[in-house]
Specification:
This protein is α/β, with parallel strands linked by helices. The chain is built from 14 helices and ten strands. The strands form two sheets. It has a six-stranded mixed sheet, with helices on both faces. A four-stranded antiparallel sheet has the order 4-5-3-6.
Length: 311
């Protein structure tokens, strides 16, 4: 029997109305949106269901809205007795993974990621940092280009998503320089991303320090499901390691491709992406085309996934 992993998306997957039809159909999902509003002290449910794209794009809104939607979309699966053998999330999605694993209470997680979003935005003034997606170039060549571009300013690999797809982050001039170098080395595309901060690079260390202070106020629980974490791509089963990995994650590369490979090595053959979008599903398929990849973001995808998992 193969194993099952729940995986949770990161920033950029948000859209107005996400999770709305699942919440209308499942009380357990709706309750999560209400809990988030209580934890945050404003009507986040209204923002998610009926708000506007510009408001959702603000990092301190994006982060709690995605985590809330992901955790809400997971409730029907849990209700039907579907439990994962492993959990993981891309960047922000790691918080939803910890909620799924029982490490962090949902209300604590949603309040924490709102602050995380704020700290990440404040760490680098708008216009100073940038990110870029490099398509069709091997990892070593991208790493080398970042090193060469560091003569101009900070430039580092930020996300190792899947073979031939990386994101880099740093100061604007250095990222632009790295784009040129990557293209010269044979990248199919090197394009600036529409983000408000250079996530997962050393420029965000101040955000990690502020996050550390907030994490100190939170009591973590024992981990019930192994979590594969971004910074090491290894399994964390001891709650004492969790705070360090979450702090380091802010300013270090996300090793998503290796996270998926770790789960494959552990016998996972079915991945369910839970929350808005299907970005991670695409990455998993590029890493291993033979595994089963399902997703849950609305009633149609939920019903299809339930049918597949319960047969």
């Amino acid at each position: 029997m193969g194993k099952l992993a729940f995986i949770f998306p990161g920033q950029g997957a948000q859209y107005v109305g996400m999770g709305k039809d699942i919440a209308a159909q499942y009380k357990s999902a709706d309750a999560i949106f209400n809990e988030a509003a209580e934890a945050l002290g404003f009507d986040i449910k209204e923002m998610i269901f009926n708000g506007d794209d510009e408001t959702l794009k603000i990092t301190e809104n994006t982060q709690p809205t995605i985590v809330t939607t992901s955790v809400a979309c997971m409730q029907p699966l849990l209700e039907k007795g579907i439990k994962p053998d492993f959990v993981a999330g891309l960047s922000l999605g790691e918080y939803a993974a910890h909620v799924a694993a029982g490490t962090i209470g949902f209300k604590d997680a949603v309040a924490l990621v709102r602050k995380r979003g704020k700290f990440m935005q404040e760490a680098v003034p708008v216009g100073v940092g940038a990110m870029s997606a490099i398509i069709g170039l091997d990892n070593d060549s991208v790493i080398e280009s970042c090193k060469e571009a560091s003569a101009v300013g900070v430039c580092e690999p930020a996300n190792f998503n899947c073979p031939g797809q990386l994101a880099i982050a740093g100061e604007v001039a250095a990222v632009e320089k790295a784009n040129e170098l990557c293209k010269a080395k044979g990248a199919k595309r090197a394009m600036m991303l529409p983000v408000s901060a250079p996530f997962h690079c050393s420029l965000l260390k101040p955000a990690g320090e502020k996050l550390a202070a907030e994490l100190e106020k939170i009591t973590l629980n024992d981990i019930k499901v192994p979590v594969i974490v971004n910074v090491t791509a290894q399994c964390v089963t001891n709650r004492d390691e969790v705070k360090t990995t979450l702090i380091n994650q802010v300013s270090n590369s996300v090793l998503w491709e290796n996270c998926v490979k770790t789960m494959l090595e552990q016998g996972v053959d079915t991945f369910v992406e839970i929350g808005p979008g299907k970005v991670l599903s695409g990455f998993v398929k590029k890493i291993n085309k033979d595994v089963k990849v399902l997703n849950v973001e609305n009633l149609d995808s939920l019903n299809a996934t339930l049918e597949e998992l319960l047969k």
